Predict the structure.
Amino acid sequence: MKPDIIYSNMLKPGQLFDGRNFLDHAKLQQLGFRTFTIGKVVPPAKLQSTVVTA
């Protein structure tokens, strides 16, 4: 399974539901997926903030 290819072909936002706590959520979040689990707390991806000055 190549998650980057799957993500590029999905409607955005790409969302995955991991009912068996099997997936590498950190890697998937880096690719852009929103991940959800059942029975396991996974911290959300850290978003990089951009400062725009005029």
